[in-house]
Amino acid sequence: MDEWFKWEREATPHTTFWFFEGIMRNMRIHFGMTYPASYEIYRGRILLWCNRLGGLKKVGHRLIDHFLSMRSVAEIEHKMEMETERLTRAINEVEDAQLKSLSDSQLTALYHRFQHEFTDWGGASAATSEPIAYAGEEIVESILEKQGIAGKEKQRIRSLVTSTTRISFTLRQRRELLEIAANYGIRRGNFKRKVKETRISSAIQKHAERYFWMHNGYLATYFLDSEFFRKELLQLLIEKSPEVHLKELDERRREFLKMKRRAIKELRLTSRESKIIGLIDFFGYQQDYRKEFILQAVGTLNSLLKEIGRRSNIPLLEMKYSIPSEIDAIVRGKLERKTLRSRMGNCLLAWREGAKECEVFVGGRAISEERKLGLESEVSESLLEIRGISANPGKAQGVAFVTMTSTEANRELKEGEILVTSMTSPDFVQAMKRCAAIVTNEGGITSHAAVISREFGIPCVVATKLATKLIKTGDFVEVDGNHGFVRISKRMN
Q: Which of 17, 231, 293, 334 could form a disulfide with 329 if both were Cys (CB 3.0 to 4.6 A apart)?
């Protein structure tokens, strides 16, 4: 039976609806195709999104063929940036509006304009990453097999050639913060005094205005102020001077680029294969690029939902369990709160291929629909070693911290622990900076965990399928990022 693609994290129906509507309806407008049937399974505040992996890969191969017909990656990037400009204008329109002063009709009209732009962008700029990542990995695998490359060498080359050569916004933000310290002559011995100076405080304030959205997620949003970034800078300067930090980042990047160029040269690629590797590089970057604007847009969406909820006496969290087609009814007082509250336990949204709308199942019906999918697999507790894909080399051992939520990880994971989760996203970064290694159930070598682990130099194993079921918080585990396996060496009990 075909495997499932799974994506699991904190989320609510309204803050992800734009994406599913985009990939199941608007993507057809842009590319003449959609994802295979998609299922959103909510268990409280945790979303499990599922697609048949084989169908997703087929979409990815068709998208690769589509983009190979374009003149260059620069043309693809220009088109993506034009689409993002429209979304940015929609964000700015909401942010510039005095929401409380708008009439109900003006507020709902603004909401629908924003949601339309967000959904259209989802069908164009956000829809391509997952299919291309999985299809791209399949193509790279076939290239390696054709050339007889196997074992450790296969893992090394596969990881390198599927890595993006561009830096993530997480690393960009860290570099810019360190550059503030370097430009103003802050040293380890004077940083506590210097960061309070007016000119430096002003620079950090501008930095905060650019990156205040970085810890937003599909469940909650957070406004990061200048004090947050001041503390982050102080923590970095306790470790070493800004110049040393920047030098290490530059050296790591130069070494990676050199290794990637060498790996590609070793493969003796055809012209078509070289273009495909270039596309994989670009769409690996696009995964991070789209997340930068998703995090800003979900913050804007929350502002709209909060104001609509305030007028309707519905708390923001309950509003997030509505769907866009219900907004007008909510404003008119025609939708009962119990309808939204009923979805906060078990809820399933089914997006069938070719359907104009999603189907919503609640409570027992949601559980019944989930069982029909046959997602669960038995896990033997006697299993002590699991294999995945090596996303970044290196070895680490330590106490496991298992979680599905970034909130819990950022708050409770201790320095040197092993982060074990379904998949990571930018709202996990605080915890990722402290962990000794990263292990995920899902994702590939272009996933967020893979990209960030490479930039921070953290051993990482992805696509283990079973990590969060087999490993418990407190277990002592060994992570081998060189060979792609995780071993439980001592159970918590």
A: 334
Tokens for 477?
């585990």
Whether 36 shows a pLDDT value over 70: the answer reads yes
> 397 in helix, strand or coil?
strand
- The whole-angstrom distance between residue 265's C-alpha and the CA centroid of its chain comes to 31
Percentage of the chain beyond pLDDT 70 is: 96
Q: What is the mean pLDDT of residues 339-346?
A: 96
Q: What is the pLDDT of residue 192?
A: 59
Continuous H helices in 374-443: 406-412, 429-434
Kindly report the pTM of this predicted structure.
0.90
Contact 391, 488 (CB under 8 A): no
C-alpha dist (Å) from residue 82 to 86, 88, 89, 377, 412? 7, 10, 11, 43, 40
Phi, psi of 199 (to 5 degrees): -65, -35
3-class DSSP string for 220-241: CCCCCCHHHHHHHHHHHHHHCC
Three-class secondary structure assignment of 126-192: CCCHHHHHHHHHHHHHHHHHHCCCCHHHHHHHHHHHCCCCCCCHHHHHHHHHHHHHHHCCCCCCCHH
**397, burial (CB in 10 Å: exposed 0-12, middle 13-18, buried 19+):** middle
Q: Which residue type sits at 304?
A: L
Please tell me the predicted confidence (pLDDT) of residue 493. Answer: 66
Length of the chain: 493
